[in-house]
Amino acid sequence: MPTSTPLPASLADLLVYSAEVQAARAAGKPIVALESTIITHGMPFPQNVETARQVEADIRAAGAVPATIAVLDGRIRIGLDAADLDRLGQEKNVMKCSRADLAIAVATGRPGSTTVAATMMAAEAAGISVFATGGIGGVHKGAETSFDISADLDELSRTPVCVVCAGAKALLDIPKTLEVLETRGVPVVAYGTDEVPAFWSRESGLPAPYRMDSAEDIARLIKARQLFGGHGGVLIANPVPADSEISRGEMGQYIDAAIAEAARRDVRGKAVTPFVLGHIFELTKGRSLVTNIALVRNNARLAAAIAVALAAAK
Ligand code: PSU
Ligand code: MN
Question: Model-level pTM greater than 0.90?
Answer without folding.
Answer: yes
